[in-house]
Amino acid sequence: MIPWPALSLALGSAAFVLGQSPIVREDKRAFAVLDPNGPFRNGTQLFEPTPNVNLTPPYFQVFDDRFNDILGPNPTVRAIIENDTFAFAHDGPVWIPSTNQVFTGGFLAPKFHPSNGSKVSMFNLNDLENSTTGLINFTVVPLSADVQINNGATLFRGDLLLVTTGNGTLPPSVVRVNPSPPFNDTTILNNFYGRQFIGLNDAKIHPQSRAIFFTDVTYGFENGFLYRFDADTGDVRVIADGFVRPNGIAFSPDGKTAYIADSGESGGVTAGINLTLPATIYAFDVMPDTQSFANRRVFAYIDTDVPDGLALDTNGNLYVGCGDGTQVFDPKGTLLGKIFIGVSSSSLVFAGKGRLLVNADTKIYLAEIAAEEWT
Ligand SMILES: *[C@@H]1O[C@H](CO)[C@@H](O)[C@H](O)[C@H]1NC(C)=O
Ligand SMILES: *[C@@H]1O[C@H](CO)[C@@H](O)[C@H](O)[C@H]1NC(C)=O
Ligand SMILES: *[C@@H]1O[C@H](CO)[C@@H](O)[C@H](O)[C@H]1NC(C)=O
Ligand SMILES: *[C@@H]1O[C@H](CO)[C@@H](O)[C@H](O)[C@H]1NC(C)=O
Ligand SMILES: *[C@@H]1O[C@H](CO)[C@@H](O)[C@H](O)[C@H]1NC(C)=O
Ligand SMILES: *[C@@H]1O[C@H](CO)[C@@H](O)[C@H](O)[C@H]1NC(C)=O
Ligand SMILES: *[C@@H]1O[C@H](CO)[C@@H](O)[C@H](O)[C@H]1NC(C)=O
Ligand SMILES: *[C@@H]1O[C@H](CO)[C@@H](O)[C@H](O)[C@H]1NC(C)=O
């Protein structure tokens, strides 16, 4: 563990001074063999392999020295927004570079539950400048009733692109939302040749073709598909199947590799955990002609709960929202380190160079590190 000097975040007399963010260096060899009497665990419990580490998360765990380059010399991680009664930060965070505004989907209850009203909230990272506590506020975005249970989101042609689960008679849909008042929206897709989707979960734009790729997860139903939608021609097609619960999606910077998180192990609020099902990130080659996904292989298996939202940095390292925070893998699938927040994180988003926002339902953490997103 290396203590880092405290950083002064804001200027002036009321400056909020950041506490130290500890770094624990974990030696993979040191826990290769555990005592036969334990402590063993299943994927629902946290893992701090170094004995007698008595730290309260959040902190950093370094499993590979290369993680130090990702963290940089003075990494910090802390909560910047909290609301104990409102899981405002579940999924679908999007950062708007021009305004420093962030949008995120959530649920009006302390824990995520699809029967609790879903809301999209927003906040501005510029507010950190004058915050004396290190915390900032968010507000609920006044969206129309067309947007129900938004899960994944991304930026598309200057608008927010939300993928939804729908609600009651309103079908799941892909919706464009104006990120400025009056936050008007336009639904751009809600069916596959007349057939309804199941519950859209996450979306990304392919870096070269700019087509929209989104996952349709199986919470409550069978089968999980991955779709590609060309917003200009209207063409929608299935480009991968065979998942249990396809969840997060991301592309490598060159657009040639796709990553899909299969959160099959977690059946959500109805089916609970089944440890025999996948908690796996699969990598695929994106076919140059059709952009369908080929050569599926296991990229990584998540040791704590399930993988959910995904993001990549400029060096092609993959950041995964999962049961203990954010896990970071190199392009070959080696675990480099964790932003260990000690609770489940459904999603994450880079907000400019060196700033990673980690959603944890009732809190959002800001990790200030060296890495930056490739987009
Ligand atoms: C995992 O282990 C914990 C603690 O022993 C136990 O409470 C829980 O039921 C286990 N979960 C599963 C899915 O086996
Ligand atoms: C938390 O969210 C609820 C629901 O929007 C709101 O009524 C309450 O004021 C918020 N609390 C804080 C501390 O922001
Ligand atoms: C959220 O939904 C669950 C399940 O329906 C319900 O038990 C709980 O009371 C709801 N919470 C709130 C704050 O509405
Ligand atoms: C679904 O719609 C009903 C009726 O408008 C509303 O009460 C409920 O909160 C909605 N559910 C979610 C998760 O938004
Ligand atoms: C921070 O305070 C300064 C001085 O009052 C003000 O000029 C600036 O606009 C404030 N920044 C934000 C983001 O509110
Ligand atoms: C957040 O809202 C509270 C209550 O309105 C206010 O006292 C506080 O100054 C706000 N914090 C920031 C950073 O704007
Ligand atoms: C919002 O309304 C403006 C003005 O009518 C329109 O140009 C824009 O396309 C709308 N945006 C969305 C996402 O519906
Ligand atoms: C767990 O998943 C396996 C594979 O689908 C299935 O055979 C088994 O019945 C499931 N277990 C439970 C308790 O649902």
UniProtKB/TrEMBL annotation:
Residues 184-354 form the SMP-30/Gluconolactonase/LRE-like region domain. The keyword Plastid does not apply. Coiled coil: none annotated. Keywords: Signal. Gene3D superfamilies: TolB, C-terminal domain (2.120.10.30). Residues 1-19 form the signal peptide. InterPro entries: 6-blade_b-propeller_TolB-like, Oryzine_lactonohydrolase, SGL. It comes from the Eukaryota. Pfam families: SGL. PANTHER family: PUTATIVE (AFU_ORTHOLOGUE AFUA_1G08990)-RELATED (PTHR47064), SMP-30_GLUCONOLACTONASE_LRE-LIKE REGION DOMAIN-CONTAINING PROTEIN-RELATED (PTHR47064:SF2). This is D-lactonohydrolase-like protein. It comes from Roridomyces roridus. The lineage of its organism: Eukaryota, Fungi, Dikarya, Basidiomycota, Agaricomycotina.
